Amino acid sequence: MEDSMLDDFLKRNREMADHSLERLRGLSESDKHWTARRSFLVRNLSDYPRDRLDYLVALSMVWSNHVFMGCRYSDQLMEKVLDMADGVHVEDAPHFTTRDEIMQQRK
Amino acid sequence: MQAKEVNGVKAPVDSSKPNPNEVEFDNLYLDMNGIIHPCTHPENKPAPKNEDEMMVAIFEYIDRLFNIVRPRRLLYMAIDGVAPRAKMNQQRSRRFRASKEGLELVEEKRQMREEVLSKGGFLPQEEVKERFDSNCITPGTEFMDNLAKCLRYYVADRVNNDPGWKSLTVILSDASVPGEGEHKIMDYIRRQRAQPNHDPNTHHCLCGADADLIMLGLATHEPNFTIIREEFKPNQPKPCALCNQLGHEIKECQGLPKEKQGEFDQLGSNPPIGSEAEFIFIRLTVLREYLERELTMASLPFKFDFERSVDDWVFMCFFVGNDFLPHLPSLEIREGAIDRLVGIYKNVVHKTGGYLTENGFVNLERVQMIMAAVGEAEDNIFKKRRDDDVSFRKRQKEKNKRMKTEAASFVPGGQLAPQPLGQRSGGSKPQPLQNARQTAYEMRVQGRDQQNKTSAHSNSSNSDGSPVPLGTKRKNGDNDDDDEPPDNIRLWEEGWKQRYYKNKFDVDASDDKFRRKVVESYVEGLCWVLQYYYQGCASWKWFYPFHYAPFASDFTDIKDMPSTFEKGTKPFKPLEQLMGVFPAASGNFLPKTWRALMENPDSSIIDFYPDDFAIDLNGKKYAWQGVALLPFVDERRLRAALEAVYPDLTPDEIRRNSLGSDVLFVGKHHKLFDFIVELQNSGAQDIEMSPELCHGIKGLLTLKDDVIKPGRTVESPVPALQDITENNVCSILFKDPQFEDGYTFKAALLPGAVKPSKVLKPADWEQSNQKQPWKPRLGFNPNRPQVHLDQAAFRTLGHVMSKDRSQGGSGVYSYTPPPLYQQAKNSRPPLMRAPPSLTVPLPSLRPQDSWRGPQPLFQQLIPQRNQGIEQQLAWNRILQSQTGMFQQNHHRLGSIMPNPYQSQDRRGRQGYPDRRYPLPPDSGRYSWN
């Protein structure tokens, strides 16, 4: 009995969290990209207090921009967000060639 | 028109004298960013050493323009201010790229320098100067602030001292006033037109290199509108970035001492580099005549109104590409997309029951019909594109092969050696042959030897002369296929739409909701852009949030899509916008704590500033042509992050970050002078200026404490220039006339506007004037006197011309092959956004072209891309050969007309070289704004 109440509580909590997360969805974000990023956010939400939420959003964008747009950031940052994304499942992530790579090929 | 120079001293030009172009302009508008960029980091001459030199270069450039145009009423100078959000993606992409390109150049220079020096080459001392980061040409930087200061001084100086300026009204809209330069100009014109004192026959002249200026000019519906721009010259020699010599690129620099050319070489050490740019006029009244022929439709179910059809035409040009939206995949300008659209339009408009647009507002139901028609053709367009591409590549390959073996295998020598036509070798006429048998024998011997030599050569060596070891493959340098990026969209194959959405948006084509969102955003975008051109910025916040466009066939059920915008939006502040468009590498233009937000891994907006980003070549060959996949800025988070660092701004930074006003200047000879001096003494806030004192110009004047006052010294911000001690100029803040919210600016000719007389040959000329040949109308003056030459003059001319030709090798008869296409491989995107071809067909400037009639206009109007050059060549050549014929008998006359100012138009003398050069990319505008 208690277990189910707890479950229920957690579920409602999750729904509320999802609801408030929904406003963080970007204008152009597809379902696929948003699902992945939301999962990133949910996974790390507990480590970031409310007033640091924007920072978490930035990290989720760093990760999402990297995976879905091909952006690269400093090694330190990359390591951090890839760590945080541990366990987020992305099905057939696209492949990109960055500008530096193109210039490297030219040489 | 250039000041004459005698012994290094320039003789001033009196610009108060009648305009030598046989036309008088009232207003000159300068889109300043088109001037600032070439003056601060020129492509074809050594860069100025410091900021002061840059400022002086800008002053000189404006002087030159001024002397050509000689405006009699108004000079309006507009520098790009903060742009609408819709433009930010493009600005970001330019600045992120520019920053990387700059760093790459520095690195390349360093490496080459080491290499050259280690091989014992000589290079000039490395200059200590810092690399000029062109990114500083963005509103809010110290550089832009200084520039505004310098321009205020410049205006004061000229109005005080130059007779051509003394009764002129000058308005300066610097970078602190929001809006893109050209749009600030449009806003000014639009608002003046809407007030009753405006002179409907004002002759406007707008200076700028952007192709949109043509659209903007058409959108004003002013009958007298001319654009002046620098003539685009392809393949200008560029000095090597290392040793400053011409003739090689940085990669081939060997650090050799300069070769002396001719006896007096050291006297004119500079001239060949950076020979001054030349200007051309584009008369929109002539373009309007062409458009009228193209667009006029008989038997419409409603009354044909040319002005309305022009607006529809401008609107359709947006489908093909603009600064705010990516172009539709099926509409490529170089594939004649505009012609196609006009064709479709003329078919569809019979059914739509009216025009697509009105005063800059779009009728979506009608637009949908156009889109549906384009959509039907889409599949075929992609297939044809593929076929053209394949056959182009095949031809290219064959050509490359041919070029390798093209060196003539046998050229007769001695007295049979070929002689250039029309040229006397050694001052003597060609001699009759003597002893032909002996010569023929010598040639046979020579030929045999040569053959032996080459066959022995090619057996054992590589193309660079090194021996090829047996059993290894030859290096193949001509296999272009290997450089082609793989295309995994394959628009020409079944299932292209699915692949496109999957690859570009990473969504399944079945995801209708997403596709709707893309289409909706695009439709919104089209509405926004059209309003931007016709009514001003509808929303500072709106932007297109994708990197790619949908297909025309996706535009279904668009008629109820929202096309209104949030009201009362505000532009970014200058420093905020800098945060939005700069990469972290340009952070030095920002205050320290602001910069930290771009660099610090703990920043809450760090995701806006990737170190490296993907480039989608999107079917193109070079990185600069591709789409830069940069993240979009989240305005809410940006503002939130800045809140914390706003208190760190110094008073000076606070000033630079605030929104400024336009400034109006007049001198003591101006009727408005006393009025303004009065206001300066009594204080003023939004006082209406009386239009009768100022050629019908209206506006609101406000006093500010740092204005220029007569009798008070104007200090020179440039050390090399002197303070103005006896100042007779006053300045005051100026605001465009204001209209109530929701006011609609009318896109129509004003009552009282007199249409200029026609220039084109009437279509029915032959029928109605059988006896009389058509006399082309050249230049601005319809009654321009013809010049006749007698025989003696022709002899003199022939003498002068042939000499000229043999020296330069670039004359009409020149057989010098045009620069090879291969050069394009190394070349940068050419600077100008619009193609050189744009300016060719306008008859007013190119006498030879008026023979050609109105047909080939549209496909030339807007930039074409690199790839399509060879495809275009066929018709290019036809035109060339046609015009060439006329040039011979026409231009020899034209270019020596005793009008000295004609000499600007040098192309007339040289003929137009075959266009085998890379055309600019369609977004290859200067990296300004």
TrEMBL record, chain A:
Signal peptide as annotated in the record: none
Family: Belongs to the CARF family.
Domain XRN2-binding (XTBD): 21-107
InterPro entries cross-referenced by the UniProt entry: XTBD
Organism field: Chiloscyllium punctatum (Brownbanded bambooshark)
Pfam families in alphabetical order: XTBD
Superkingdom, taxonomy of origin: Eukaryota
Stated name of the protein: XRN2-binding (XTBD) domain-containing protein
UniProtKB/TrEMBL annotation, chain B:
Any one GO CC term of the record: nucleus
InterPro entries: 5_3_exoribonuclease, Xrn1_helical, Xrn1_N, Xrn2/3/4
Domain Xrn1 N-terminal: 18-231
Keywords associated with the record: Exonuclease, Hydrolase, Metal-binding, mRNA processing, Nuclease, Nucleus, Transcription, Transcription regulation, Transcription termination, Zinc, Zinc-finger
Location of the region described as Disordered in the Swiss-Prot/TrEMBL record: 1-21, 388-489, 892-929
Gene Ontology molecular function, alphabetical: 5'-3' RNA exonuclease activity; RNA binding; zinc ion binding
Enzyme class: hydrolase
Biased composition (Basic and acidic residues): 904-917
Function: Possesses 5'->3' exoribonuclease activity. May promote termination of transcription by RNA polymerase II.
Protein name: 5'-3' exoribonuclease
